Amino acid sequence: MKSSEAQIVSNAIQGAPEAAAATKSMSIIVTKGSLDWAYPPFILATTAAAMGMPVTMFFTFYGLPLLLKKLDLQLTAAGNPAMKMPMMGMHMGLPNLLTAVPGVDAACTVMMKNMMSKKGIAPIEELRSLALEADVRMIACQMTLDLFEYSIDDMIEGPEIGGAATYIECAAKSDINLFI
Fold it and tell me: Going from the N-terminus, what domains does the chain have, and what CATH number goes with each?
């Protein structure tokens, strides 16, 4: 069963007006691949696609692993003072010193995934599938593939391979360009 957020996006994709696609378009450079940084580009891409916009996502550097067949997304509280989790009736943050303790990142990841599941937030795999279903154009950066020694066989089906020139050509025509 799809989460409520994914169902809303899926329903919107099916009923999206075609006229809107001719008026605006969006491109997103995806540069980060942690659990918390994976959500914004996929939520924005699927929402824009549901509104009828053509969307291109360019996955480079640490964002490229979001296209891997098997995701193992982690979260770290280190250096993130805004990460305050609802606990014991308040919002508590972890001191940076505590994040150096082995296992803290794993615990934060489990806690965040559990909280998202309880709130009905779609997992990244589901949002990624919705993006493909909505014909979001996904480009895997060739240079990053080479740099980190990935092959297209490591990636899900759907993304194309391209470089900076491919993205710039798209971005030059887009109304909305985001760097995430």
Answer: 25-179 (3.40.1260.10)
* Token pair recorded at residue 74: 């982690």
User: What are 117-167's pLDDT values in tens digits?
Assistant: 999 999 999 999 999 999 999 999 999 999 999 999 999 999 999 999 999
Q: What is the dihedral of CA 105, 111, 114, 118, to 10 degrees?
A: -140
Q: pLDDT class for 112, splitting at 50, 70, 90?
A: confident
- Secondary structure (DSSP) of 52-91: T--EEEEE-GGGGGGGBSS-------TT-TT-EEEETTEE
At 83, list the tokens. 């990460």
The residues, ordered by sequence, that sit 6+ positions from 91 with a Cβ below 8 Å of its Cβ are 84, 85
Residue that is written with structure tokens 């030059």 in the block:
172
